[in-house]
Specification:
By secondary structure, the protein is of the alpha+beta class. Helices cover 53% and strands 18% of the residues. It contains 14 helices and 10 strands. Helix 1 (3-13) crosses helix 11 (315-351), helix 9 (262-300) crosses helix 11 and helix 11 runs antiparallel to helix 13. The longest helix has 41 residues, at 20-60. The mean pLDDT is 89.
């Protein structure tokens, strides 16, 4: 062990009796520990909510979505799908249409998104098939009626149930209603299934019909609005996006799951960083205690410093001694805080110490926790940097002591 590190450790740990300086040092360690534990716990909760939201969104939305860069629809999607399937990481591809329409029942009229999908492939890119709890996700279109699948909240608002008949109205051509009488395009649909996405925005805003029915209702011809893609692992989304950008025309734009909800994730990221900064202030406050503790240690060890300088210790060595002592306080506080934060997170996972109302936060019944190793690294770095900064002033003060005056001091 280096001379400076040995002396720093002796000054920190070899106090024979409890003194005021010792109490301040303990307070410094406790302060850093509480700050680190709080920061890790809060970041883990943010991670948990982020993971929960991502799971819900990507359960229904694709990992990647391709749309026309010039128009809202395109027809050559068969060739495009074959190119997409050539990428090894792609596990599912399905075309879709997506347009606003009006669903009319005996109880109410509701404006929703009418999504046309291929019932054979939509399950490869979306969880809507798995979440269809009542009935089944099949349209069974006929000349007279087509099939429709509704969200559970939309079903409640319409006051309908399986087997009921609904009327869908298209807004196509309604812009001409200002100059002439326009009859809205309508079609009759039978409710084939009800899905529950555990997401009110999906459950009340989206209804699914077949692509042919959608093309007829919205007068799309042979066009679709886009292609949904699911990859083998969501973390590969950006990699696959880059590869697909190289093999398909610039006439198409590719969005990842993050791009589709960039506003939401930007807000969540801002909240996470805000919490990180605010809780880091707790560690910063503890760092003031470190500075105070080291300053008082310098005064207490003034004679020792004079003797070491008289024996040939350089100013740099004196600085290192007190910087090492400050860093040791940070290390002990960080390690204890990491262990405490990890314990709190594990306790929340196992015992659900902070429950949530499942009627409001369904399907969550407690604060979600997602423990990530990099959080421990970032928090540890922040704590160590603040501890290092706090030790600079006392260390510089110690190095400026004159040996003769220090030795004579009593």
């Amino acid at each position: 062990m280096m001379f400076e590190g040995f002396v720093a450790k002796r000054y920190l740990l070899s106090k024979k009796k409890i003194q005021f300086i010792t109490i301040i040092t303990l307070i410094s360690v406790v302060g850093v520990s509480i700050g680190v534990a709080a920061l890790i716990s809060v970041l883990s909760v943010f991670n948990g909510f982020n993971k929960h939201v991502t799971t819900i969104l990507t359960g229904f939305d694709p990992h990647l979505r391709i749309e026309s860069a010039k128009d809202s629809k395109f027809s050559d999607y068969g060739t495009l799908i074959e190119k997409i399937k050539s990428e090894s990481k792609v596990k599912g591809v399905s075309p879709f249409t997506n347009n606003k329409g009006i669903i009319s029942s005996k109880k109410d009229n509701v404006v929703v998104f009418i999504k046309g999908v291929d019932e054979k492939t939509v399950g490869d890119v979306s969880g809507v098939v798995e979440k269809t709890d009542a009935g089944y996700f099949k349209f069974e279109d006929s000349e007279e009626y087509s099939g429709i699948v509704l969200g559970i909240n939309l079903m409640g608002k319409l006051g309908t149930r399986l087997g009921d008949t609904l009327t869908l109205m298209s807004t196509v051509g309604m812009e001409k209603s200002l100059t002439q009488i326009v009859q809205p395009k309508t079609m009759r649909f039978i409710v084939r299934g009800i899905y529950d996405a555990n997401n009110k925005d999906y459950d009340k805003l989206y209804a699914y019909i077949s692509i042919p029915a959608s093309q007829k209702l919205f007068e799309l011809g042979n066009n679709v609005n886009g292609i949904d893609i699911r990859v083998d692992n969501i973390t590969n989304s950006n990699t696959v996006k880059e590869k697909l950008s190289g093999i398909i025309s610039s006439d198409y734009k590719i969005n990842t799951w993050y791009d589709l909800h960039s506003d939401l994730y930007s807000v969540m990221q801002a909240e996470r960083w805000t919490a990180y900064i605010i809780l880091s202030i707790i560690i910063a406050v503890a760092s003031f205690s470190i500075a105070g503790s080291l300053t008082m240690t310098v005064l207490e060890k003034k004679r020792d410093i004079g003797i070491m300088k008289a024996m040939g210790s350089s100013n740099g060595s004196i600085i290192k001694i007190f910087m090492y002592e400050g860093i040791l306080i940070g290390v002990y506080g960080t390690l204890i805080g990491c262990a405490l934060g990890l314990g709190i997170c594990l306790a929340q996972i196992k015992f659900k110490l902070f429950p949530l109302d499942p009627m409001v936060y369904a399907p969550l019944d407690a604060l979600p926790i997602d423990i990530r190793g990099m959080d421990f690294v970032y928090v540890g770095i922040a704590a160590m940097v603040l501890s290092f900064i706090a030790s600079l002033f006392p260390a510089m003060k110690a190095s400026k002591l004159e040996p003769i005056k220090a030795i004579r001091w009593e």
